[in-house]
Amino acid sequence: MSEASAMRSVDLRSDTVTRPSAAMRRAMAEADVGDACYGEDPLVNRLEATIAERLGKEAAIFVPTGTMSNQLGLGVHTRPGDAVVCHERAHIAMWEGAGGAANAGVQLVTVASASGLPSVEALAAATPPSGAKAPRARVLALENTHNAAGGIPFSPEELAPATAWAKARGMACHLDGARLFNAATACEVRADAIAAPFDSVSVCFSKGLGAPVGSAFVTSRALREEADRMRHRLGGGWRQAGILAAAALYALEEHVPRLAVDHARAARIAEAMVRCGVARPTHAVRTNLVCFAVDAAWGTARALQDRLAERGVLLYDTGPQTGRLVTHRDLDDDDVAYVVAAFEALG
Ligand SMILES: Cc1ncc(COP(=O)(O)O)c(C=O)c1O
Q1: 273 with 61: CB under 8 angstroms?
Q2: 96, exposed or middle or buried, with CB in 10 Å at 0-12, 13-18, 19+?
């Protein structure tokens, strides 16, 4: 690495590491607020109306996290003892502390798929049959982009067979759209086209969109009412949350249009790791996530993580030979060039 690219810190562990920009902080500082539990916070109300409209739904509810939003999705569509069908590495299956079981009392039925989007055949084979002995399969929960499968975006056409299959069986469809706008950007469609077949969608402002906190559960008016009760039960009824809604509104306005930049930077880093013979992506890189396999001849994923960390570049190993990196709005072109140079130095 040259003198010019002296040690810097580039955090590629997640798009959740972003910090609010000066302009976003200004919008937060100037937020007009009220008690959101009384329905009196103007910016929370505006955010809920805005995101519902963007996704073509009747209503939305602003919550602290994507996890809470997904939990509302599991709760509003089910009764204890029901089953929810999802991908085996879905966020709701792996990273929500068994919230489906603990909060909604549901059984997750997990289905394998390399892409993260199970085929109708795989869904049909895994889903419990009807009958008194089996759990009632009430929900199909999908994820877009799919985090653990490599940030893969699914277009409305790709999602259609699974959601049509679920609807034909009388199941509700929930979408974990933590990175929905990344998916829409990569597929070059509007977010409402992706959201259309789903009865509820969770969307996060705190991932690629760069807000410090916040997600929305977006659904029908009737289910919003039920979700509101559950949110309070989970302790998520907040007060002058307009300070946070201001950041989310700013992110929707200013940061959605620039997501393609993050995607191009992820592709550039992925190309560098292949060129240097260090690692290769496990899937085509189309969004801001790069899941990769480290070349065994080079070393292990832990060794790669450690060697890059010595150069100030942070990413995660996810297995002995696999890892993940994520681009986001706190990077600039110099950071990306620095990461490329770091891979070149290891190749
Ligand atoms: C796909 C997906 N869903 C849900 C979540 C949960 O979001 P939160 O950390 O806000 O609870 C994450 C977090 O990274 C995620 O990647």
Answers
A1: no
A2: buried
The string of pLDDT tens digits covering residues 135-174 is: 999 999 999 999 998 899 999 999 999 999 999 999 999 9
Q: CB of 215 closer than 6 A to ligand 1?
A: yes
Cα separation, 323 vs 328, whole angstroms? 17
Q: Nearest residue CA, atom 16 of ligand 1?
A: 147
Q: What's the gap in Å between 91 CA and the centre of ligand 1?
A: 7
pLDDT score, position 272: 97
What pLDDT score does 4 carry?
45
Assess whether the C-beta atom of 145 lies below 6 angstroms from ligand 1. Answer: no
Q: Write out the H or E segment, with its range, that includes residue 202.
A: strand 200-204
Q: How far is the CA of 132 from the centre of ligand 1 (A)?
A: 34
pLDDT for 5: 52
**Alpha helices for the chain (secondary structure H):** 22-29, 42-54, 66-76, 91-94, 99, 120-126, 156-168, 180-187, 191-195, 221-233, 242-254, 259-275, 301-310, 333-346
Structure tokens at 41: 């916070």
C-alpha 179 to ligand 1 mean position (Å): 9
Please give the CATH number for the structural domain made up of 22-254. 3.40.640.10
The protein residue whose alpha carbon is closest to atom 4 in ligand 1 is 66
* Whether the CB of 91 sits within 6 Å of ligand 1: yes
- For the chain, what are the domain ranges? 22-254, 258-346
Read off the tokens for 329: 């709005």
Q: Which fold has domain 258-346?
A: Aspartate Aminotransferase, domain 1 (3.90.1150)
pLDDT above 90 coverage of the chain, percent = 96
The kind and range of the H/E element at 237 are none
Q: Using CA atoms, how far apart are residues 287 and 285, in angstroms rounded to an integer?
A: 6
> What DSSP designation does 256 have?
G
